[in-house]
Amino acid sequence: MSLSDDLEVGTYLEVAEATEAGHDERPDSRFEARRPANGSEATRDAVAVIDFGSQYSQLIARRVREHHVYCELIPHDAPRARLDAIQPRGFILSGGPASVYAEDAPLIPQSVLDSGKPILGICYGMQALAYQLGGEVEPSSRREYGPAVVHVSEPAAAIFHDLPGEFGVWMSHGDVVRRLPPNFRSAAISDNSPAAAMWNGNGLIGLQFHPEVVHTSYGSQLIGNFLKDVCGCTGNWTTASFVEETIEAIRREVGSGRVICALSGGVDSAVVAVLVHRAIGEQLTCIFVDNGLLRAGEPRRVVDTFEQHLGMHLVHVDAADSFLGRLAGVTDPEEKRRIVGDEFIRIFAQEARKLGHIDFLAQGTLYPDVIESTSHDTASAASRIKTHHNVGLPENLPFRLIEPLRYLFKDEVREVGAALNLPEEIVWRHPFPGPGLSIRVLGEVTEARLETLRAADAIVMDEVRAAGLYRQLWQSFAVLTPVRTVGVMGDFRTYGNVVAVRMVSSQDAMTADWARVPYEMLRPLSSRIVNEVPDVNRVVYDITSKPPGTIEWE
């Protein structure tokens, strides 16, 4: 399922429509919304991050975006057209697990080296830059991993502008640059790296350490110096410019066509719906399928928000009985996912057919969805973690896709939602899995067990908000386990359910850490669940990070 909180319907609807509804298939009809822009493509600030497979590659992209400079993470072996499409002002080369001198090691595209534009190589990116420009890279006698201190030897290098002469960094490398390429000189040193940074006196720079991670002091300033002082970026990619350009792009592409959008109540689908609605108004129809697997009060909130407050045309389908009927007796989590998806196909396609001819489907694909679904011939760059159903769509769609968030991270989507004046409870709603509570009820899903979970989950939300932690946490929720334990309540022995509480901190859900929340919050939370939720007599707190665990239990 998607990292986003929506049950996106691209694959579901197009398969159902193509096979059941008799729409004409149009092989060239797929429309991917324009990349975010500010003014003309030629004047927009942008850089390309060339990905060599580093675990930190996505962090580089996020750090660049924080300086209001647009960027994309592009595999090292991608066609040149991918680079040309964003017209970058400069390039950042990521780290990676390979050794640049090894056979078949990934290399910097020659078009990048020949471009004459600024280049910042990070870790493996620096080694590749040195190697391909005539320097020497070899294994280090001592691997340098973890915190280190670098001493700046070339303060004139623009990337070190306004930085102290020495500062802490994060190293992660086993190779070192032993001989610099012609016309380069060392710009910083560390105990184990005679060239912890290198510089050619112009726009080519290498850093052996990782400025993108929080463990590097002044890391954001280093990246900002490269973007502004070296590449000449002005930081003109803003939320306001994104909203304006995206609405205009949607209006231009849709014309007089009709669009459908699936609403889940989450921020991704909500932002997509508002962007499309502002572009084309009544040509948009939103479909909200209540599968009976949502949290307490959510169906009513979705209807009130989009139908009454935002004035959208909303089709509300109460399909709880249908979903629960198909889930009866099912305990395998993958089978639950399959059933929920399959039932969604049937119901959503059925409702869409009632609307007549549809030209476009709007959906909330996010950039992490695209990155995680990327597959390459080599295992180096952005290797596929999992295929997201709203990314890997067949070519022959019965309508065209509108994906205005395809190049945004979750925090950027929230910024857009706030700029669109969406209600705070939608903008900051914690991510929610597509299969809903069916994968938080471990074991068989019944109405009674769902009600138990909803009651416990509502208490978790109450206490998290009361502690002022809701916006600090990536997700917080309750899980109803299939375990029953002995307890004592009053003078009576009980044999009740165990509820697990999960709270995590994260930036993008690709990694997550369990949240160190105050005991003063956990105490009333546990007490309330045990006392207010029937047949629950024990609460446990999950302290597993991702990896090795996942955020959801199923």
Structure description:
This protein has 554 residues and is of the alpha/beta class. It folds into three domains: 10-35 and 238-427, HUPs (Rossmann fold, 3-Layer(aba) Sandwich); 46-230, Class I glutamine amidotransferase (GATase) domain (Rossmann fold); 440-541, 2-Layer Sandwich (GMP Synthetase, Chain A, domain 3), CATH 3.30.300. It is built from 16 helices and 18 strands. The protein has helices at 10-21, 57-66, 80-86, 110-113, 124-132, 219-230, 239-254, 267-280, 298-309, 320-327, 333-354, 367-372, 410-419, 424-427, 447-466, 519-532, and strands at residues 46-51, 70-75, 90-93, 119-122, 136-152, 166-179, 185-189, 197-199, 204-207, 259-262, 284-290, 314-318, 360-362, 400-402, 475-489, 492-505, 513-514, 536-541. The chain has a nine-stranded mixed beta sheet, with helices on both faces. Helix 9 links the parallel strand 11 (284-290) and strand 12. It is globular and about 75 Å long. Residues 1-34, 37-42 and 375-395 have low confidence and may be disordered.
